[in-house]
Amino acid sequence: MAVDLGDLNAFLAVARARGFRDAARATGASASGLSEAVRRLEAGLGLRLLHRTTRSVRPTEAGQRLLDRLGPALGEVEAALDAVGSLRDTPTGTLRLNVPVSAVRLVLPRIVPPFLAAHPGIRLEVTAEDSFVDVLGAGCDAGIRYDERLEQDMIAVPIGPRRQRFAAAAAPAYLRRHGHPTHPRDLMAHACLRGRFPGRPLLPWEFEREGVVVRVDPSGPLLVSIGGAVDLAVEAAIAGTGIVYLFEDWLRPYVDRGVLEPVLPDWWQPFPGPFLYYPGRRLVPGPLRAFIDFIRTAA
Predict the structure, then answer these.
(1) Structural domain that includes position 106
(2) Three-state SS for 165?
(3) Do both 109 and 257 map to the same domain?
């Protein structure tokens, strides 16, 4: 049977205090309210729980049995609520993030170690995928995506560098053989290593200089799935297979090592950095709230 927890607490207070007025003083409730709660509980059980006289209140046999079992049980309930409530002050538990591979490589390495050091009670689970997913449907608390891929009903918080660029690069040997492009349209005569989101059309390469945007759709010998297969395109570019087009920060280590050279650097198009996004503003889970506060402080 369904029993109101408040009615059980009222019975427990009255039985322990041996009176409605003393119980009312101890709990801050009214004596009439406690009396009504006990009557409601007795009616639901079909049993009298308290003997009432003008001088005292004492449990019946049924009431004493309930009292003996109820005290420890409600103590467990209070302990459970206290344990859950402690998450507000000292966040513990698991935080699940769904992020693109680019964020795993370029954004999270500078954030995750100091965040976990600051919150040893939090366990972070990161799923890396570049497909369009419902983060809640995927069992995650939040995701990281770029502005054009954010769902409109989500809360978005900036995370990572606020300005990034798309860059093109090729191996020095390739450029010696085929020459340096001087305009994005020159790429139509080059071997270009392309990437595509799974199940999505092939997107053009975009370049921009002095407000002029040029889109080209070059061809080439290699097409990879954007995400985990992008490293294959980078290695192919290093081997001299063709020109790769990717995040500047992704290509920068290879350019600094000299195994790749910038292509059309004056045309590299800037774009806003990624966002952490999650549903709703109220009752945000403690681990997620701690992560949001951390990235806002670190910004």
Answers:
(1) 99-158+274-298
(2) strand
(3) no
